[in-house]
Amino acid sequence: MKDLRPLKLTFGLILIMASGPLLSTTLGRDHGLKEFKNLMKNDTEKFCRYVVCQENETPGNCPEGTVYTGGVAQYGCCGACVRFRQFNESCTGSVDPLYGGGYTTDLDTHWNISGSGNRSNTLYSHWCDFNLECDVENKTCQLGSPEGNCRFLQDQYDAFLKDPEEDPEVNPTSPKYIHFRDDYRWRPNCTEGGDFVEKQCKGPLFEERCVCVDPNGNTIYGSAFPFQTVLYDTMNCKCSRRVWERYNAGASSVTLHCSENGNYEPLQCEDGVCYCVHPATATTYGPVLPEEAIKLLPCYNGTQIGAQYLRRCESEFKAHTILSNLLKSKLVQAPSMTLKCDPDGSYAPIQYDGANPKCYDKYKNMIYPTAGDGCQCRRDEDFFVKEGIQVEMQCEVNSGKYTEKQMKGETTFCVDGDGVRAGPMVKAKGFGDKLDCAKAASCQNGDNDSCRKSCKGCPKEAYVEQVSGR
C-alpha cells in the first residue's frame, strides 16, 4: 500500500500558499503547517471548500465489492469507493450500522489507498462492513445485528436471487428463490451510509404500495398506490422525512405542510415567515415574506389555501398550546393534550375520546370505535369506499390494524402493517393454516433460511401465483 504522509504534507503546503484568504496569519518557520492542521481539525467544512475532489469513481461506477462513501477521501472532503473488511478478516472497528458514521479526516489511522491501475480513489478500510462487528477479543469481523440496516437487506436479497432453484419440481422447499413462493420479497433502496431512502416501494408485482420511511425503514406519514398515478410517480417523501427529523430533534410543533404522498406542498410557513417550494425537487424559490404578506408569494393560491395557513387540527393545537402556557404562567395545571395532527395539517388517525383511543378520518369523523395501537386498515378501508374501489380486506376486531392473515377469494396470505402482502399466496383450503407469517417477516428482514419456511411443508400446488392487480 502506498504511504500517504508525504503526499499530505506536499498538498498541505500547496493549499496554504495558494489559498490567500484561507489563512489570516503570516507563514512562519513551519510554513503554515500548524494553521493548516488547526483548520483541518476545527473547521472541516471551511477547509473542504478549498479542496478540489479528484474522484475517479462515481456512486454508480464503483468496482464490485466496494461501496461509494462520502467524506472519506482527500482529508475527509471527498467521496470514494470503499472496500470494507469482510467476515473473519482482521479489523480495528465497526461501521455504525444505523448511521454509517465514525469517519475521520486522519487517513493514516483508518485508510490506505490502492496503488493498482487507475483505481486511485478506491480505499481499503480497516473497519468491518455494515452487517458485521469487530470482535474485541480476536479483532476479526463477525456477524452483528443487521436490524435497521438497509444495505444488509439488499445484500441478503441479492444473494437469494443470485442462485435460483434450477428444478423446483424436484425440490420445492429449496432455500433458493422460487417465484411462486418468494415473489413477495422486495429490495429496499439505501443511502451510501446504509440507511433507508425516504421513499420505499414495496410489495409483489401489481400489488405495490409506496410509503415514506424513517432512516431505519419504519413507515411514517405519506403513501401512494399505483392507481394514484400523479402521487405515485412524483413521490419523494422529502417533506415527510423532514417533519420526522424535526420532531425527533425535540420540536413540539412543526408547521411544514406535506402532501398525501409525503412531498412538500408549494407554500410553506414556519415561525411567522413563508416561502415557496418546488414539490418535485424540494428546493425553495422566490422571496421569503412575513405570513401577513403571504398573498404576495408566487405559489399562493387563495382557492386552495383559504384565509389562513394553519389548518383545522393545527389551529386547534395552537389554541390549546396558548391556553396551556397561559395557565402555567398563573401556576395552574393545564389539561393534558392528546390531540395529534398529521403533516398535512389534518387530524391523525388515532384520537382520544376521554381515555379511549378511536380511529378517525382526516376530518375527525370517527370511522371505528376502537383504535388499539393502529388505524391503518380502517383508514385504508374508508379511503377505498370513498374512492368507489372494492377491495377485500380484514381489520382486527379490537383495533384498526390489518389482521396478520388476509383472505382474497379462495386464497390466504400474510400482510405487513401497511397492508402490503408480506408472504406467499396460498390456497385457503388445506393450506391457509400452514402459513407462518413470523417466518415470512423474518425472511423480509434478511433471514434467507426463513423464506422456505413461510408455509410449513407446503408443496408446489399449495401456492397461487399472483398475476393481476388488487
Structure report:
This protein has 470 residues and is of the alpha+beta class. It contains 14 helices and 19 strands. The protein has helices at 5-19, 33-42, 44-48, 107-110, 150-162, 179-182, 229-234, 238-248, 302-305, 312-329, 376-387, 428-431, 437-444, 448-451, and strands at 67-73, 78-85, 93-94, 111-113, 122-128, 132-134, 141-143, 199-202, 209-213, 219-224, 267-270, 273-278, 283-290, 350-353, 356-360, 366-368, 405-408, 411-414, 426-427. The strands form six sheets. Strands 1, 2, 3, 4 and 5 form a five-stranded mixed sheet that branches. The chain has a three-stranded antiparallel sheet with strand order 8-9-10. It is globular, with a radius of gyration of 27 Å.
Summary keywords:
470 residues, 25% helix, alpha+beta, 14 helices, three-stranded antiparallel β-sheet, globular, disordered N terminus
